[in-house]
Every structure is written in C-alpha cells, then in structure tokens.
Design brief:
Helix 3 packs antiparallel against helix 5 (178-193) and helix 5 runs antiparallel to helix 7. The chain contains twelve helices and 18 strands. By secondary structure, the protein is of the alpha+beta class. The protein folds into three domains: 1-81, Phosphorylase Kinase, domain 1 (2-Layer Sandwich), CATH 3.30.200.20; 87-269 and 309-320, Transferase(Phosphotransferase), domain 1, CATH 1.10.510.10; 336-420, no CATH class. A hairpin with a 4-residue loop joins strand 1 and strand 2. It is globular and about 55 Å long. Residues 340-356 have a biased composition (Basic and acidic residues). It comes from Cucumis melo var. makuwa (Oriental melon). ATP binds at residue 32. This is Mitogen-activated protein kinase kinase kinase 2-like.
C-alpha cells in the first residue's frame, strides 16, 4: 500500500496514531503504529478488527510491517479516520458540561448495538470508556481500541483494561466476560452524565492502582448514580452496575429497557469545526489548515443548535441541584472580616464608602433584595463578602437583636452558600438551597 504519513492525532500506551493519506486516491485514514517488537497489543487488535464489520465498530483497512529508514521494524494498522475524535473529546469540547440525557441515550444505544455485535461473535472488548469510543462525522458512536479484547471462551488471556472501569469480578482477577463490558458501559454513562467525571471520583488508578482495584473489588460499593438523572436512566444504570455479574442485564436486554426503547433514535447533531470541515481527501483545504496542529482533538468547535435545550436544562438544574461535596479549597470568593484596628477613629466623620449589601432590618431579616448601605469608618464591626463582582458589608448595628441568629445566604456561581454572621471566625456551612 502506497501511503504518506501525516501528523500525530493520538497516543496510546504502546502505539501512536497518525493521520495518513493514500497516495493514489488522496483518501485520508488513520494509521496506528508501534515497533514490531512491542506490537503484541496492536497485532491482537488487528486480528479482531479484521474479523468485524459493523457501522458501530471502527472500520479496518489493513496492516503492514515496514522497515523505517532508521532500520527499525514497525507494525502499522490502518483504520477508518473519524475526525471528531473520541467521546471524551466531545465532552471536553463542551467545557466539561455533562451531556443531556437524550444525547446520553443515543450514544448508549449505539454503543450497545456495537456491543451486541461483538458479543455475538464471542468477543469481549475489556476496555470500554469514553476515550475508546470514536465519533463519526454524523455523530455516530463507534467502539474502537481492541488492544485488550479477548475471546469470551479463552482461559489463558490475561485480564486487561482500565482499573476504574473494571467490574468487581475483574478487579478481583476472577473472570472477564460479557458482563464486565456491561459494567464498563455503566461507568461510561456516568462519564457522559458528569461531564467527564470518574465513576470513582475519590480514587485514581494512575497514582494508586492497587487501592483502586481493592476498593472496586472488595469494598461492596458501586459507582454513585448521578441524582439528576431520570428514574428510567437511574434504573438503567442500576441494571448495568450490579456487583454480581449474573444479575447484570445483557446488551440484548438493555436494548429493550424503557430508557432506550422509547427513544427517538436520531443521531446527535453534527458538529462543525471553526475553520473548515475535516478532510476526506488530500485535495481538501482543511488538511492544510490543520497540518501544523500537534493535536487535532484540541480544536474548538462551534456549538450546534441542538445543544440549546440541553444548556437551558443545565442552567435550571444548577439552580436547584447541588451535586457532590463543597470544594472548600476554592477559597478565592470566601468572606473576610474587618475589625476595629488600633488608631482608627471611633466617630463617623469620615465620608462613608458605599458598598453593595443585603437589605436587613429588625422587622424583616430577608436578604432577597439588594440595596445600598453606607459603610462607616468608625469602630463598627463589618462582615464583608466578595462573590464574583458583588461586594457586600453588613454592620453589627444593622442586624441588632437578630445578630447571632441571622444567616446570610448568597449565591456564588449558582451554588448557594450559607455563613453564620458576627462570630469571631466565619466558617462556611454546608451548601443550602435558598
């Protein structure tokens, strides 16, 4: 095969992915390359891909072994090029916002159709996650990266995959079969539903894989299901994340679950690149504009109209939903206290400074309206806050008899926060809905 290597578009643990062009036709494809001596995983992937043909599996285009000019023997696997990158890239391009439930359902259905197909062939993928799912031009999701795949009947293939996406029985080293792929589908749905979050947010497999595997395998816990999902979506996830593999639903059963069965299976809206569409031929100008980019996945995308409803829903959810624990370490917007310093005047002769603050009175301790208060320069004690572009100050005198019982509740970036007032040290409470 006569082809020309282009720039790098991805990296794996043992291989590098390049953009490539077929010299006679100018067609663009992807080539996954590794040194022949280190290509066991890549050769396994070639064996599986060459036996598969499905619109929900990345397409196989061949392979070759070539001696480079340096004399090193390289194994090259040729595959379909999907210009929108991975599902993880899709989430990242949305700024880490979670995907709306309809889009999650569409991608999940497509993944299950791919999973149905490979399971019918007796193949276990073993490493399903957002990074190993590629998105086509029309928004369809395709399973990729079969380097960890195995035959379901094999008793000799080692257990493989990404620890945080492993099923409990896999983490314990017992068995890796079709049910383990279903568990990974559940973890991937959590990825989509949390904007790229980990299914085990307090565990990191890159820094402490042993602890991660122990927690997954022996703690008796399951990944937390996002509280804002619909009841149908929650039930679907529960069917995927049963710790007992014999209780997990199969891909065929999940396809008939109400979460997917009632879905109008439109493809997700096609995304557009800022400068041009991704090339399918060497003659298209898009490839020349992108040739200097080291990572094609880092491109900014224009938001499609199909996300408008999802964004509106996201804003509404943020007003009434608090997900996860408060982030105490993010303290740039916390309150500060000003007390009387030595040498300060006790009178109020100085011109007062106008500050934004809550309207408080002895008859009405509601702070729902913003107003102007004068901040004196005398010996008063003030609670000062800065939240975003809003500063506020509340005087002890203004609060009067209600001083120790009042709670000042303000919204910082749509997260309601509560503070006790007029105490020597102002400690944040747990987030409270206004």
């Amino acid at each position: 095969m006569d082809w020309t290597r282009g720039h790098v578009i991805g990296h794996g643990s043992s291989a590098t992915v390049f953009l490539a062009t077929d010299s006679p036709s100018g067609d663009v494809f992807a080539v996954k390359t590794a040194q022949l001596s280190q290509s066991q995983s890549l050769r396994k992937e070639q064996q599986f891909l060459s036996s598969l043909a499905s619109p929900y599996i990345v397409s196989y285009r061949g392979f070759e072994v070539r001696r480079e000019q340096s004399g090193v023997m390289m194994f090259n696997l040729f595959m379909e090029y999907l210009p929108n990158g991975s599902l993880a890239d899709t989430i990242r391009r949305r700024g880490g916002q979670r995907l709306d439930e309809a889009t999650i359902a569409i991608y999940t259905r497509q993944l299950l159709m791919g999973l149905q197909y490979i399971h019918s062939k007796g193949i276990v993928h073993c490493d399903i996650k957002a990074r190993n799912i590629l998105i086509g031009l029309d928004g369809e999701a395709k399973l990729a990266d079969f380097g960890c795949a195995k035959w379901a009947t094999s008793q000799t293939d080692p257990i493989g995959g990404t620890p945080l996406f492993m099923a409990p029985e896999v983490a314990r080293g017992e068995h890796q079969g079709f049910p383990s792929d279903i568990w990974s589908i559940g973890c991937t749905i959590i990825e989509m539903g949390t904007g790229g979050g980990s299914p085990w947010p307090k565990t990191t497999d890159d820094t402490d894989p042993i602890s991660a595997l122990y927690r997954i395998g022996y703690s008796g816990e399951s990944p937390e299901i996002p509280c804002y999902l619909s009841e149908e979506a929650k039930d679907f996830l529960e069917k995927c994340l049963k710790r007992n593999p014999s209780e997990r639903w199969t891909a065929n059963e999940l396809m008939n679950h109400p979460f997917l069965k009632e879905l109008n299976c439109r493809r997700p809206c096609k995304t557009e690149e800022v400068h041009s569409e991704s090339p399918t031929s060497i003659l298209e100008q898009g490839i020349w504009r992108s040739i200097e980019e080291s990572e094609i996945r880092g491109r900014e995308l224009v938001r499609s109209d199909c996300w408008e409803a999802a964004e509106a829903e996201e804003q509404i959810r943020r007003l009434w939903t608090i997900s996860g624990e408060p982030r105490w370490e993010e303290d740039e917007n916390w309150i500060t206290i000003r007390r009387k310093e030595e040498g300060e005047k006790n009178g109020g002769a100085d011109e007062p400074e106008v500050k934004k603050c809550s309207n408080y009175s002895k008859n009405n301790n509601n702070n729902s309206n913003w107003g102007e208060k004068k901040r004196g320069s005398g010996g008063e004690e003030w609670l000062e806050m800065e939240l975003g572009n809003i500063s506020c100050g509340i005087s002890r005198n203004d609060l009067g008899d209600y001083s120790c019982r009042n709670i000042v509740s303000l919204v910082n970036n749509n997260n309601p926060l509560s503070f006790h007032t007029l105490t020597p040290i102002f400690l944040p409470l747990m987030p409270t809905i206004l």
